């Protein structure tokens, strides 16, 4: 197993956002976390990526315990993520945003950088080459000089993915990658996620677009009110009475899902 989540809980004051969550992610798959608003999906991502400490439970990447490690250490172990609310550096160019993503992995020391040593220049060239390759991969090669905030919304989401991939992750967490995308952009996103999987990067995504989820995931984990209520392949999930109940129950309340 690449990722093992065991009995994971998180409370915010009196609110139990996650309550004994257990699931695995196998190497090489595309897997989805779904569930009604407030079910705890983003909290789960925040715990896995080290942004928040868990209240209890364990998170293992390749057998190594991640809980309580800071985010940059977790990133170095091979985990990268995107955010539900896009978090790009708006003052920087598209290419610079990807280079910033890579920075965590650059090992040049400050003195070597100040002296502009050939090794440093070589490393910088390699970084720029890799960043351009990633921009090409996500379909933004012709926009490297654009300011990140001048990109269309769908392009900003793709840039966030390129930046996360600059960390060379083994596991990529995508938080609602299709949010705000039109059907055409969502189609392109599905193809992109497929290509990411071809590069042997495992993908765990939170998504409300059921068409996307059912199409690209080999396994789905369903959250409701901080608990896992079902997990399995798309076909079984679609027919699971508890899942239908969780969604239909919400629909009757606010007609939203
Ligand atoms: N930092 C925080 N402080 C206090 N409460 C929080 C915090 N983060 C999340 N919560 C609460 O925890 C619960 C789970 O939220 P979370 O964002 O994880 O749900 P979600 O399944 O990702 O929902 P959505 O699909 O709407 O993004 C919610 O009740 C939310 O208000």
CATH class of the largest domain: Alpha Beta
Helix percentage range: 40-55%
Q: Could you name the ranges where pLDDT drops below 50 across 5 or more consecutive residues? A: 252-257
CATH-level-4 superfamily name of the largest domain: P-loop containing nucleotide triphosphate hydrolases
Principal-axes shape call: globular
Number of strands: 10
Using only CA atoms, what is the Rg?
19 Å
Q: Give the biggest beta sheet.
A: 6 strands, mixed
Task: Examine the coordinates and then state which fold CATH places here, giving the name of the CATH topology of the largest domain.
Answer: Rossmann fold
Question: What percent of residues are in strands?
Answer: 15-25%
List of distinct ligands in this structure: adenosine-5'-triphosphate
User: How many distinct domains?
Assistant: 2
Task: Decide which structural class fits the backbone.
Answer: alpha/beta
In the CATH hierarchy, what is the architecture of the largest domain at level 2? 3-Layer(aba) Sandwich
Q: How do the SSEs run, as a string of H and E?
A: EEEHEEHEHHHHEHEHEEHH
**Average pLDDT rating:** 90
By DSSP (H or I, 4+ residues per run), the number of helices equals 10
Distance between the termini: 32 Å
Strand line-up of the largest beta sheet: 6-7-8-3-9-10
Give an overview of the whole structure.
With 257 residues, the chain is α/β, with parallel strands linked by helices. It has two domains: 1-78 and 169-257, Rossmann fold; 90-167, no CATH class. 41% of the residues lie in helices and 23% in strands. The chain has ten helices and ten strands. It has helices at residues 41-48, 71-76, 94-102, 110-114, 118-138, 153-165, 183-198, 210-216, 234-239, 241-254; strands at residues 3-12, 15-25, 30-34, 56-61, 64-65, 79-81, 171-175, 202-206, 219-224, 227-232. A six-stranded mixed sheet has the order 6-7-8-3-9-10, sandwiched between helices. A four-stranded antiparallel sheet has the order 2-1-4-5, covered by helices on one side. Strand 4 (56-61) and strand 5 (64-65) form a beta hairpin. Helix 3 crosses helix 5 (118-138) and helix 5 (118-138) crosses helix 6 (153-165). The longest helix is centred in the middle third of the chain and has 21 residues, at 118-138. The protein is globular and about 60 Å long. The two termini are 32 Å apart. Mean pLDDT is 90; it is low at 252-257. The structure holds adenosine-5'-triphosphate (ATP). Residues 12, 15, 17, 35, 37-43, 84 line the site of adenosine-5'-triphosphate. Pfam families: ABC_tran, BCA_ABC_TP_C. Its EC number is 3.6.3.17. Keywords: ATP-binding, Hydrolase, Nucleotide-binding, Transport. Residues 3-250 form the ABC transporter domain.
């Amino acid at each position: 197993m690449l990722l093992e989540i065991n009995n994971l809980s998180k409370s915010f004051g009196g609110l139990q956002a996650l309550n004994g969550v257990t699931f695995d992610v196998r190497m090489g798959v595309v897997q989805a976390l779904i569930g009604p608003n407030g079910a705890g999906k983003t909290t789960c991502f925040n715990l896995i990526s080290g942004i928040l400490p868990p209240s209890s439970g364990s998170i293992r990447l390749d057998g190594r315990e991640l809980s309580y490690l800071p985010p940059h250490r977790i990133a170095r172990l091979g985990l990268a993520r995107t955010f539900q609310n896009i978090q790009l550096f708006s003052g920087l160019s598209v290419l610079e945003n990807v280079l910033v993503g890579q920075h965590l992995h650059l090992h040049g020391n400050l003195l070597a950088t100040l002296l502009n040593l050939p090794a440093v220049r070589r490393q910088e060239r390699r970084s720029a080459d890799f960043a351009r390759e990633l921009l090409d991969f996500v379909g933004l090669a012709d926009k490297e000089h654009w300011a990140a905030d001048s990109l269309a919304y769908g392009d900003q989401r793709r840039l966030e993915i390129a930046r996360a991939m600059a960390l060379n992750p083994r596991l990529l967490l995508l938080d609602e990658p299709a949010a705000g995308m039109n059907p055409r952009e969502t189609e392109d996103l599905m193809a992109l996620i497929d290509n990411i999987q071809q590069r042997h990067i495992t993908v765990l995504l939170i998504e409300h677009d059921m068409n996307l989820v059912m199409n690209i995931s080999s396994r789905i984990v369903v959250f409701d009110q901080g608990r896992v209520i079902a997990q399995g392949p798309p076909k079984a999930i679609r027919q699971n009475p508890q899942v239908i109940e969780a969604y239909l129950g919400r629909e009757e309340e606010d007609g939203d899902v």
